[in-house]
Fold:
Amino acid sequence: MSSQAPVISCKNAWKLFGADPEAHLKTIKPEMSFEDIRAQGYIAGVRDVSIDVLKGEMLVIMGLSGSGKSTLVRCFSRLHDITGGTIEVDGQDIMSLSEKELIDLRRNKMGMVFQSFGLLPHRTVLDNIAFPLEMRGQDRHTRRERALEVIKLVGLEGREDYFPRELSGGQQQRVGIARSLAIEPDIWFLDEPFSALDPLIRREMQDEFLRLQQMLNKTIVFITHDFDEALRLADRIAIMKDGAVEQCDTPDQIVLKPATEYVRKFTEDIDKARVITAGVLAISGKKGTGEPVDAKSNVKQLANLLVHDKRKTIPVALDGEIIGAMERADGLTVLLEAD
Amino acid sequence: MASVTTNNTVPKVWSRQQLAAGFAITAVVVTIIQYSGLLPAWLHRLPEEWIPPFAPWLDAFFNFVKDDLGLLVVTRFLTEQLQVLLDTTANLLFGKRRWPNLGPIPWSAIAAVAAVAGYYLGGWRLALLAGGTFVWTALIGQWKIAMETMSVLVVAAPLAFVIGLLLGIAAWKSPAFNRVIKPVLSVLQTLPFFTYLLPAVIFFKVGPTAGAVATIVYAIPPMILMTTLGLQRVSPEVIEAGKMSGCSRWQMLRHVYVPAARTEILVGVNQVIMLCLAMVVLTAFIGMPGLGAKLLAMMGSFKLGRSFEIGVTIVLLAVTLDRLSKAWVVKLPEHFERGTPWWVRHKYLVLGLAAFVGFTILAIFVEWFGEIGRKQTWSKGKEMDTAIKTFLALDGVQAVTGSIRYVLNVWVLNPFRDFLLSIPTSAFIMFIVAFALAMASKKAAVLAAVFFGLVAFSGWWDRSVITLYSVLSAVAIAILLGLPIGVFAARSERWSRRVLLACDTAQTFPSFIYLIPAIMLFGITATSVVMSILIFAMVPLVRYTVEGLRNVPPEMTEAADMSGATKMQKLVNVQLPLALPTMAVGFNQAIMFAFFMVIIAAFIGTQDLGQELQRTLAGTDLGKNFVLGICVSLMALTCDMVIMEWARQKKAALGLD
Structure:
């Protein structure tokens, strides 16, 4: 999953919108709320956020609209300049980059997918996908070759010469995804990529996305307001409210141990059985009897076994190695949502 | 103006409406005192000796710029470059003996290419329109004069486009530049066209070059506005996608912003073409040969049949150019299947080339396809002339036009004019201020006072009032006629569509055309002036009335229906109040159009600013020309500012977008 130094390291980042944000930031005290700041004529898009994104991990940022999730991601790629704090990408403070260095960073390391696709209407599918390659000056032949490769990857063969308006929403987003992958970025930003799609297509695109992720293994920052989507995809989830990160943790921890009242309310309706895995319930050192269950399976998947098995403690194994055992009663409690 | 100072000391609790009423009452009192002969003369009209010599000052300034700063050297240099371009197009289109000495291109070849372009952009109907226009022009025997006009148009329109695009990008990039250019553009858009013509003649030689320059300057403002608008509207995600693709600034502009603003920029192109055509016809006043000059001559000698034919040619050209460029706006690229050969991908280009070459060769062998001689034309000018004159001479017709003329002149127009002239300058300005206060805001009232004050100090007060009188009376009659038409048309989907189409088409006609029917019916009289303005101003009025009424949200009319409102109740209580802000935009445009037309009507003979303006064209009186032009502009700007501000407030109050 994840290891070593963070790819993106964000420390006490602030983004204020208003007349003179830099000067105003100095007057802001830590106890001031979003509303207090707004009363002074400023909007805190990002409020004192410290977060690390580890190499190869998928961090999902969640929150209601207006909670600052899009703003935060745009600070990571410096589409927005932050007002205070630091953001480092691969150990380099991105606010210190010159315009040319910033362009180089985006040309070589970053890819981004947008909610309403952001395709250039006057370019064909092929030319849209080859656009970032064209911008960094690759010759026509190589960029065409690479674009065709990604087109194949996202399953759009045969549509190379179509214009965006001739495609369905799902197909347009495939173009958006292909374009963001054309330069083989290390870091992949996805800003609510599937929100504009209808539910059936959304599901299909999520599967497609998971397939790509397993194949490419990139560092991903994914924004969504859909908790189900977050649960399906995330290694870690960061929940934002009024520009601040309320909690950033693994899905099960967020559901089991909400850090704030807001997070608790946010996760209230979640089917915990789908989030909590055997690994979470396993108590290390404890020994069970009989066949072990896979640590990665969630309670829902184990429902049948939990109900019909007669064992009191069941051993749990991760990648074939026993890591402990779970109480069957704990599993049933989660399954029945009994507190 | 003692009343102003008293009003300034009034405590702030006075509302805008109360202030407005105060001004209006003071104005009435001042006017009554004047009628009783007790008003000091300086409050009635500013004494001559108070009027600063603006014209000589401006002349001195222009001379300084022209000679001392060496602007004339620059413009003369530009004139030479422009002359080369114009000579080239003149050679190609009507065979002027200049480089490259290839022309003239046979009319049949041009008509065929136009038809292919029409087919490519909009199918058979546009092909017929575009091809038909050129065939008509050739057959009616106006090919040469039409090409004289076109030769300037094809140079002026692209130059206006490029300059407008660049300035638009600059205004979008730099807020400071935008702030400077915005007021300049609004003045330019209200400045009477005569004020464009004289400087063009002085700096760029009489004839096509001056005509081209005036045309370019006239057509630039909307291009700038559309470019800025389009660039501002590019979706933020497209911009971010460009940035994330690692675009440099230049790449952003070239590959992201400008292509994404394609629609607005092409709408700008459409407006540039239409304004160029309108202006190029008007440059007849500075001796630019072509359709406009011919029309001017024919109308001057009251040859109505030929005037009508030229009018039809101009209208056809206008409609063709408008429809083609509008079709281009909505034309989007489509993909071809893989492996399509190049001649299929570019089949229209191939077809156009083939048609061009084919007809050019044909013209070598069959002279008729190259040039249609004088005797071969199908012009029925003389016959129509006789017909129209016989018709107008009929007793019944004479009685009708005669009585309309009599009633309008004796009962409406002259008394209204004399009344406006009888109001003291000071009271007049107070009325205007009261109007601005009641309708818009205190800021607008202050500006209105300044603007009309300047007009008073220009020394052309009486002529300005007469100009304003023509505008107001024509717009008032236009409202009386136009509103019922608009309200009626808005009642049904079908009629709305028809009327809107008619208005759209009429709006593409160069303003000069509107003189023809007025002169036909009422001869060269003051009634014709009002009539030509009236027809021209009615177009936006009807159009915006229909649009305003049709765009009332359906849930509101449904709510009225369910409340049991009759059609009349619904109209008065629901539709009209909600449509009023949109209709106000129509009133405003009608007034702006009227200010434009009243100047052209100087050709018929008026006693207003336009007449004086036209006279300056004969000389080199640049200072006077500008003073007069600015007077028109200031009055128009006042109306524009007040009405648009009112519409904005009303819209906000109604919660309409």
Summary: The longest strand of chain A covers residues 6-17. The radius of gyration of chain A is 22 Å. Chain A touches chain B through 38 residues (CB under 8 Å). Residues 199-216 of chain A form the longest helix (18 residues).
